[in-house]
Design goal:
By secondary structure, this protein is α+β, with helices and mostly antiparallel strands. It contains three helices and five strands, in the order ααβββββα. A hairpin with a 6-residue loop joins β3 and β4. α1 packs across α2. The longest helix is centred in the first third of the chain and has 20 residues.
Amino acid sequence: MNKTELIDAVAEKSGLTKADSKKAVDAITAAITGALKSGDKVALVGFGTFSVKENPAREGINPLTKKKIKIAAKKVAKFKAGSELNKAVN
């Protein structure tokens, strides 16, 4: 499902117009992104938790040259599914 299909599904299930559904989807993604940028986590009970994980700097190997390279530290977004979502999928 892509973003357009998600907007269509939200419009169908909520009775909102597609324009209003697009605004709602955009607002939710912006709110989650903003919270993660500020270092917070977003917990949607039963659905899951969005959080930020810090990967430390490390050494890797370039597969072409076999030389060691330094991989910089970075933050990555992480999602852990909640119990209700896991039950629905299984």
